[in-house]
C-alpha cells in the first residue's frame, strides 16, 4: 500500500512524517520522500536552491520521481510493505502547474503525459490544509527559505491540491492542519490504521 503526505510548505508535513515513524513502528512501513531519491536527490535540491529555469526544475522533479519509483517504491511494494512518502506526484501537479504557467503551453497536459502509464498511483493521500498565512508565519522562523515559499504562490498551490482532492475524493483524506500537532498525528494514525486493516 502506498500512502502519500501532501500539503503546502509550512503545513506541518515533516512534523507529521516524523511522528508517524514512532506511531506506526509496529507496521514496519518504509518511510521515504520526494525530492530525495538515491543519486539524483541532491541535484534536485541544488536546482531548487538555485531558483533557475522552471522547466529544468520540473524535469528534475520528474527524473527524481523515476529514480524514486525504480529504486525505492516499486521494490518495497513488491515486498508487500506499506510505503509512506513525504510528497509524491501530487506535489508536481500542485506546484509545477503554478511554476510552469507562462513557461510551458500546457503544464497540466505535460504533467499528465509524463506520469501516465508508468507511475504508481497512491492508495491514500493525506492532504494537510491550512490558511496560507498560518503556514507562512510558521515558515518565518526558518533560516533558509525556498523560492516556493511566497503567499500568492502557495495560495495557488493549495488551490490546485484542493481541486485534485475534489476530483478524487476516495483517495484523499483532508486534514485540518491548523490544529495542534498531536491532534493531527492522532487523526492521521487512525486513518492509516483503518486503511491498512
Ligand atoms: N500543528 C502544528 N502547529 C503549530 N506549529 C507546527 C505544527 N506542525 C508543525 N509546526 C511547526 O511549523 C514549522 C513547519 O513545520 P514542518 O513540519 O517543517 O512543515 P513542512 O514540512 O510542511 O514544511 C516547524 O517550525 C514546526 O515545528
Ligand atoms: C516533490 C516536489 C516538491 N516540490 C517543492 C515543494 C517544496 O517547496 C520543495 C522542496 O521540498 P521539501 O524540501 O520536501 O519541502 P517541505 O519540507 O516543505 O516538504 O520542492 C515541487 O515543486 N515539486 C515536486 O514534485
UniProtKB/TrEMBL annotation:
Pfam families with a match to the protein in the record: Thymidylate_kin
Binding-site list for ATP: 7-14
Keyword Transferase applies: yes
Stretches that traverse the bilayer: none
InterPro entries the UniProt entry points to: P-loop_NTPase (IPR027417), Thymidylate_kin-like_dom (IPR039430), Thymidylate_kinase (IPR018094)
Keywords, sorted A to Z: ATP-binding, Kinase, Nucleotide biosynthesis, Nucleotide-binding, Transferase
Descriptive protein name: Probable thymidylate kinase
The encoding gene: tmk
Amino acid at each position: 500500500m502506498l500512502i502519500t503526505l501532501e500539503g503546502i510548505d509550512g503545513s506541518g508535513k515533516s512534523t507529521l512524517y516524523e511522528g508517524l515513524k514512532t506511531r506506526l513502528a509496529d507496521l514496519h512501513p518504509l518511510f521515504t520522500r520526494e525530492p530525495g531519491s538515491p543519486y539524483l536527490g541532491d541535484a534536485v535540491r541544488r536546482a531548487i536552491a538555485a531558483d533557475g529555469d522552471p522547466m529544468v526544475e520540473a524535469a528534475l522533479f520528474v527524473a527524481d520521481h523515476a529514480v524514486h519509483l525504480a529504486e525505492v517504491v516499486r521494490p518495497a511494494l513488491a515486498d508487500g510493505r506499506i510505503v509512506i512518502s513525504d510528497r509524491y506526484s501530487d506535489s508536481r501537479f500542485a506546484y509545477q502547474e503554478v511554476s510552469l504557467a507562462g513557461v510551458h503551453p500546457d503544464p497540466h497536459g505535460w504533467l499528465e503525459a509524463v506520469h501516465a502509464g508508468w507511475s504508481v498511483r497512491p492508495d491514500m493521500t493525506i492532504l494537510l490544509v491550512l490558511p496560507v498565512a498560518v503556514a507562512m508565519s510558521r515558515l518565518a522562523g526558518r533560516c533558509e527559505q525556498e523560492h516556493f515559499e511566497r503567499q500568492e504562490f502557495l495560495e495557488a498551490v493549495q488551490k490546485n491540491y484542493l481541486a485534485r482532492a475534489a476530483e478524487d475524493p476516495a483517495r484523499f483524506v483532508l486534514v485540518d492542519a491548523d490544529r495542534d500537532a498531536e491532534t493531527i498525528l492522532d487523526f492521521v494514525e487512525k486513518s492509516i490504521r483503518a486503511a491498512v486493516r
